[in-house]
Amino acid sequence: MAVIVNPANPMKEISQTQLVAIYMGKMTNFEGNGAIRPVDYTDSSGLKKDFYERFLDKDIEKIKRYWVKIIFSGRGSPPKALDKPSDVLGFVAENDGGIGYIPKEMVDGRVKELVLK
Length: 117
Known about the structure:
Blueprint: E1 2-5, E2 13-14, H1 16-23, E3 29-30, E4 34-35, E5 37-41, H2 46-54, H3 60-73, E6 80-82, H4 85-94, E7 98-102, E8 112-113, E9 115-116
Parallel strand pairs: 2-9, 5-6, 5-7
Antiparallel strand pairs: 1-7, 1-8, 3-4
């Protein structure tokens, strides 16, 4: 699996702490690089489950409950959810603040893969 950003983003690497903050809605801007537009998958996606468990060390059911609380308290909204890796690839390629994750073999010149530090 690869974490990807729009090629206009100057970031080259990302930490687990940053990924958690982005996907939990706590980090909303790249330092000096504008708004972050994270994209995710629908809850039924095996990729989503794998990403949250492997990269964020979070259980998907706990994540769902977390977002329900955040939404109902009016403090934020979860990342945009798409169905397929090709949709995530397209979204990130077309949005300067886009960040997402796709199978590593799908990374192409339209996006930039970040090194996990």
